[in-house]
Amino acid sequence: TPLPGAQERQRLLARRPRGPRRWWRVAAAAVLVVEMLERAAFFGVAGNLVLYLNSAELKWAGEQASRAALVFLGASYLLAPVGGWLADVYLGRYRAIVLSLLLYLAASGLLASTAFPDGRSSFCGEIPSARLEPACPSPGCQYTSRATYCAPTLYAALLLLALAASSVRSNLTSFGADQVMDLGRHASRRFFNWFYWSLNVGAMLSLLVVAFIQQNINFLLGYSIVVGCVGLAFFIFLFATPSFIIKPPTGSQVSSMLKLALQNCCPRLWHRHSARDPPSAQLLPDQRLPQPGPSPKEDIANFQVLVKILPVMVTLVPYWMVYFQMQSTYVLQGLHLQIPNIFPNCPTNRSETLRAQGSIYKIPEAWLLLANVIVLLILVPVKDHLLDPLLLRCKLLPSALQKMALGMFFGFTSVIVAGILEMKRLEYISHNQTVSQQIGQDTYYAAPLSIWWQTPQYLLIGISEIFAILCSFPSPLGLEFAYSEAPRSMQGALMGIFFCLSGVGSLLGSSLVALLSLPRGWLYCPEDTGNINKCRMDLYFFLLAGIQAAAALLFIIIADRYERAAKGPAPQSCPRRDSG
Hints:
Blueprint: H1 6-14, H2 22-46, H3 49-53, H4 62-78, H5 80-91, H6 93-113, H7 117-124, H8 151-180, H9 185-216, H10 219-239, H11 253-265, H12 267-275, H13 296-314, H14 317-323, H15 329-334, E1 337-338, H16 351-356, H17 369-393, H18 400-430, E2 435-439, E3 442-450, H19 455-468, H20 480-485, H21 488-516, H22 537-566
Parallel strand pairs: 1-3
Antiparallel strand pairs: 2-3
Helix pairs in contact: 2-8, 2-9, 2-10, 4-8, 4-21, 5-6, 5-8, 6-8, 6-10, 8-9, 9-10, 9-17, 11-12, 11-13, 13-21, 13-22, 14-21, 14-22, 17-19, 18-19, 18-22
């Protein structure tokens, strides 16, 4: 977002109450607390979503639960440009955040209502009774897949949650930056430092506390905490309203880019559309009254930049297919590995003891997501303050594109490690070496391999995120390539496209799971409802690795052409209004 001019800055400051400097601290602190609570709520839903859908109350098959998790994660990124566009054109960031938190509260309440019997019967109806079917002894016999109970209500709740979370994500960061913009760039950098840490603190608290409650006590209490976090965030944001700088909507670059894309791709359709416009809309750029934001000439220059950058960003989509596995199929794999008790002196996982004692607390499978969070909190500042300066002094610092290629390599390695672990797990299963373990109210038949064997694949995904996504510390939205190559007025639009493409990657991963769940597919195992012991998820992981490897080769070719073109003579561009 461009820095405002002197007049706009004074006008915005006039919206803040008169008083000492503590007002900006109150405003910034409120934004940070709201971000922490919102991330705690989001991870409270995403962290154990596969386990919830796979539980005895809902009885979704493993591939159905993974597919729903990928749809939720994909939609939470894919819909990010919608919330940003509505805020820029109609609502303004403040009202967009308030409405998003209200939607968040309603959707999380709907999800929590499905976690107890009366709520499920009200919103979903009664569980359909299973049909009695003859046995299926022959290997080629086709089983009938069960319909997913409560699917319309759950998908509606998850999509509404995704829309609310994406709108908060796309608006809260820049709204918080508005609160400290009059204090200089150093204050903005400090704010983004704290914003990034608030995000991760919220995720850690949710994974440590909410995930434990959901797995070991019940999901109703866990989802009630999610509702409480959203409600608390909403009231804190409202109470801090008098201290906020509130900017009115100023228009969106997305609209300009869509018009230019229509004009270039479909000129006939564009001429028909422009013929209906009023005469004032058909004036030449120099004849129009000056408007805030980029001029029409700058829009054309920005569109040319977008055309150059977009192919590079599109090749990241397969990386996102791999990245979102850690909250879907990685979780499903972990449920079928031996999960130790939190208190080692408790009885072991063997069957009769477990059935007699329902109060044994196990390490939540979602805690492995903490490996991703911890590696980010530790390695990002190490990279920023130690590794990058050292490489810069040695003139070995890689470019942003080279870092992204390195991130793809670590993502490829993560899914290969997951495939090898799954192969080893299936070897134990094929020799009938299984462990019956109780997780909540559900029994899983796991291989006698510790769940800690999953740690390397989570760590590798975390390292890949540092290079492929968080290329510039400290911003959680740090897309170094887009920020270094695009004009400042295009950075917001590029971040929207970046989130949108990441959502496309997650949805493509969900589509791939659906395709492989068809009869004769690797993930088709209806006779093994609730477990994946007769599926071939190892082949699914290796297929993802192959897709990522092919995309990485394509990325290297496109990036090489882009860098060679960038070394040529730079074209003259219009002076930008937002250069300040």
